[in-house]
């Protein structure tokens, strides 16, 4: 297709927490950006352009914050591009930043995504009454819980699968110093006793509300080759979307997600994802979405994703396809940043810099994000080698 | 420095107008008259209730002019039990929020299930609309207070699996 090669040469993130009262939004994004630049051995003056993303502005009530943030990022006078794709935005933003490089327009791009949930009220912002519908919605959990019920019914999965994923992700998060939740004491038995918030979703099976930001430095091949830092080469990217509501829509395994994954595998030259991918960070805000996305992504056949969970295939230690070694969205959810954290963790894994949550020998990794009513999808494959 | 200096709460409110367009106007007028009116796509023949922005999301064409009356009974395709309270919530938890495929419609609609214990609600359960007193009706689906079981046998999973 003539696209230039692109590599991630720096990944940065904040400590995620329920309330980062020590920083404003500007301070939050600067913290992540500074860490990404430091990892790349760069300063802001080295950067040609900035790509920024966050979930809907209503979450904090600050409209078009990218304008306010330009100076905080020392991006004034540089091209700044804002991306909007709801909860998938962190992934979409990283892809747009990569495309700035792959198109040959810029050589060094900084991309940042953030959310400061403590400044607003996401449950309120995601439960706006619509004039044509009944106000029974109850935030993201109320939206997704019926689809989880559909998955359980359709697949015949036992009811402890959601709790198993929750225990795994909360345990993984303890190895990640940036994760919001550090809760080492979860057992399957305790998790099964966690109260039902949106039945069939238990409290422990839900993500927290987090303040946090993520940033990546993406560069062209000639720049990357001149740098003596760990690199993650972007092998393939893909985005797809579909309407939230249409007759006969598959809301458990949306077609847009299946199409996006098929496109991703084709571009990356991957024919058997479960054996050719070493580790994947996938967007799992409610634990049941791990088996659901395993099927949607093509890692598992229809109705068998839960068996991979039950068999320990997705475990960080001993699993053949570790899922969410960082602890995932289930342990940190600064919504706008959550997709970029998945993409960034995938990069860290193939760079070999994931510390105590490093998957041994990771050479090929997937970052995945979804958003809206399971209608926006963004994915990338990164590798330790050039494709 | 105290927290209330570091962080201040400033509540805001927003009131919106919504231009319904002719097809959603027919739906809203139907609700005022105690009728559930959908619209059919002339291309794929699916019946949309509500007709939202007046177009078929898959075919990209205007829905037909003719009203298609749906319900008042339907099938629960899936649901959740909401146990969590939150700011601005209009219904006191716990309650069952269900997707109901009204008879004659091709897409589910969200509503409340009452008249049965929450733990007895089932996928495939047949339900019917319970309307508020007509003196309280307006252009809103809230004219239906809730749905309640009809007592008919449950619908087979395979008959509504394509709606999930």
Please write the string of helix (H) and strand (E) elements of chain B: HHEEEEEEEEH
How many beta strands in the DSSP annotation of chain A? 11
- Weakly predicted, low-confidence segments of chain A: none
CATH topology of the largest domain in chain B: OB fold (Dihydrolipoamide Acetyltransferase, E2P)
| Helical/strand content category of chain B | alpha+beta
> Could you say which overall geometry of chain B the principal axes of the C-alpha atoms support?
globular
Seen as an oligomer or otherwise, the chain set is heterodimer
Helix content of chain B: 10-25%
Account of the protein in words:
The complex is a heterodimer of chains A (387) and B (164). Chain A has 387 residues and is an alpha/beta fold. Chain A has a domain at 6-122 and 210-225: Peroxisomal Thiolase, Chain A, domain 1 (3-Layer(aba) Sandwich), CATH 3.40.47.10. Chain A has helices spanning 25-40, 65-72, 89-102, 122-125, 139-155, 161-173, 188-192, 221-225, 255-268, 273-276, 289-296, 305-310, 335-351; strands at 6-13, 49-54, 80-83, 108-116, 196-199, 201-202, 211-220, 232-241, 279-281, 364-371, 376-383. In chain A, the strands form 2 sheets. In chain A, strands 3-2-4-7-1-8-11-10-9 form a 9-stranded mixed β-sheet. In chain A, strands 5-6 form a two-stranded antiparallel sheet. Chain A is globular and about 55 Å long. In chain B, the strands form 2 sheets. A 5-stranded antiparallel β-sheet of chain B has the order 6-5-4-7-8, with no helix packed on it. In chain B, strands 2-1-3 form a 3-stranded antiparallel β-sheet, with helices on one face. Chain B contains 3 helices and 8 strands; from the N terminus they run H-H-E-E-E-E-E-E-E-E-H. In chain B, a hairpin with a 6-residue loop joins strand 5 and strand 6. The chains are: A alpha/beta (387), B alpha+beta (164). At the A-B interface, helix 5 and strand 5 of A face helix 2, strand 2, strand 4, strand 5 and strand 6 of B. Strand 5 of chain A pairs antiparallel with strand 4 of chain B, so a sheet runs across the interface.
């Amino acid at each position: 297709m003539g696209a230039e090669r692109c590599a991630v040469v720096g990944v940065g993130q904040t400590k995620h927490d329920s309330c980062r009262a020590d920083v404003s939004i500007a301070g939050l994004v600067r913290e992540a950006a500074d860490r990404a630049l430091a990892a790349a051995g760069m300063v802001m003056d080295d950067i040609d352009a900035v790509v920024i993303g966050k979930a809907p502005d209503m979450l904090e009530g600050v409209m078009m914050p990218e304008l306010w943030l330009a100076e905080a990022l020392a991006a004034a006078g540089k091209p700044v591009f804002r991306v909007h794709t709801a909860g998938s935005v962190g992934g979409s933003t990283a892809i747009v930043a990569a495309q700035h490089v792959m198109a040959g327009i810029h050589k060094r791009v900084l991309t940042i995504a953030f959310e400061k949930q403590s400044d607003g009220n996401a449950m309120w912002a995601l439960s706006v009454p619509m004039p044509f519908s009944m106000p029974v919605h109850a935030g993201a959990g109320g939206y997704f819980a019926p689809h989880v019920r559909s998955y359980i019914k359709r697949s015949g999965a036992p009811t402890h699968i959601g709790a198993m994923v929750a225990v795994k992700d909360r345990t993984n998060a303890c190895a990640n110093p940036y994760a919001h939740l550090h809760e080492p004491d979860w057992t399957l038995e305790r998790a099964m006793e966690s109260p039902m918030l949106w039945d069939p979703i238990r409290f422990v099976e839900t993500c927290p509300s987090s303040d946090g930001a993520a940033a990546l430095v993406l560069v062209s091949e000639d720049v990357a080759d001149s740098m003596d830092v760990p690199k993650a080469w972007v092998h393939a990217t893909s985005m797809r979307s579909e309407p939230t509501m249409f007759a006969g829509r598959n809301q458990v395994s949306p077609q847009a997600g299946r199409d996006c994954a098929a496109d991703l595998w084709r571009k990356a030259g991957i024919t058997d994802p479960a054996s050719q991918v070493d580790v994947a960070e996938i967007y799992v805000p409610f634990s049941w979405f791990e088996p659901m996305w395993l099927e949607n992504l093509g890692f598992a056949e229809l109705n068998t994703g839960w068996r991979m969970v039950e068999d320990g295939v997705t475990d960080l230690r001993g699993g053949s396809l570790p899922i969410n070694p960082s602890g995932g969205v289930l342990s940190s959810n600064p919504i706008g940043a959550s997709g970029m954290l998945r993409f960034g963790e995938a990069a860290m894994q193939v760079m070999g810099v994931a510390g105590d949550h490093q998957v041994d020998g990771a050479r090929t990794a997937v970052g995945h994000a979804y958003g809206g009513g399971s209608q926006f999808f963004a994915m990338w494959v990164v590798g330790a080698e050039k494709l | 420095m105290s927290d209330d200096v570091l962080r201040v709460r400033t509540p805001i409110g927003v009131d919106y107008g919504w231009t319904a367009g002719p097809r959603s106007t027919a739906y809203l007028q139907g609700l005022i008259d105690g009728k559930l009116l959908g619209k059919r796509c002339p291309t794929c023949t699916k019946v949309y209730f509500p007709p939202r922005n007046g177009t078929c999301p898959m075919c990209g064409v205007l829905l037909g002019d003719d009203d298609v009356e749906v319900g008042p009974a339907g099938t629960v395709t899936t649901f959740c039990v909401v146990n969590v309270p939150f700011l601005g919530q209009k219904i006191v938890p716990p309650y069952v929020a269900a997707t109901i495929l009204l008879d004659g419609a091709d897409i589910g609609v969200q509503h409340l299930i009452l008249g049965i214990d929450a733990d007895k609600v089932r996928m495939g359960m047949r339900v019917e609309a319970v309307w508020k007193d007509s003196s309280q009706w307006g252009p809103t689906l809230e004219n239906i207070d809730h749905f309640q079981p009809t007592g008919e046998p449950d619908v087979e999973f395979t008959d509504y699996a394509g709606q999930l």
